[in-house]
Amino acid sequence: MTARQLLRNGIAATFAAAALAIGSPALAQDAAPQFACNAPADLVRIDHPLKRFARRIAGGQAIKIVAIGSSSTSGAGASSPAMNYPSRLEAELKALFPRVDIKVLNRGIGGETTVEMLARFDRDVFAEQPDLVVWQVGSNSVLRDISLTEASARLREGLQRLRAADSDVILMNPQYAPKVINKHDAYGMVDLIDLAAKQANVDLFQRFAVMRYWRLTEEIPFSVFVSPDELHMNDWSYGCIAKLLAGAIHEAAGRSTVTATAHGRQ
Length: 266
What we know:
single chain; 5-stranded parallel beta sheet
């Protein structure tokens, strides 16, 4: 390698380090590709087969997914609407199921708590008759110091309504970001959502644990996957969460199809 190439590489490394240090959105986004998008299988696997989703996939029927949540569903911190997680999820699922028409509707509204989401379930969720609902919940309840008792009651109400609608359901818990984890009820909310999912027999996508893995195990700086506001995600993390979630959906749908086929042959 020539001296000029060494100098050029050294300059590039300096700029990458500066991006992480100052938290510049553009430079941090550019630095992010050096980190692989991954997480342990046990953190991304969803437990329950997606029966409705699988039936429609097997029949070559169109799939409609509603992503409901707050700002990390609407896409705060993304460079454009095309880079939020519902948009990226649609793209990832279309790549995994190329012969099926798949649509992911973004029904995220920034700042909302569980109560406010419940108030628009009829209009923004049930009216669409979705095959799958991904409900991102909990972050704003933590940020607003809403009691876990109240949050639990509203969460259970929402899950009962979703289950009654005969859609597949995936809960998504809060993001592992400085402004969330510094709140005293952050881990309590994660545990509450985990318990509610188990009791309602619905799937849980462990976003909190995945992002915690990035930071504590992979030692990825927060500035790579969290916006400078220390709360919202960015293009890299939205894209990675969408990729991991799409993979989990693909695996669960395949598991359900195999089970249904086996039962049909008995």
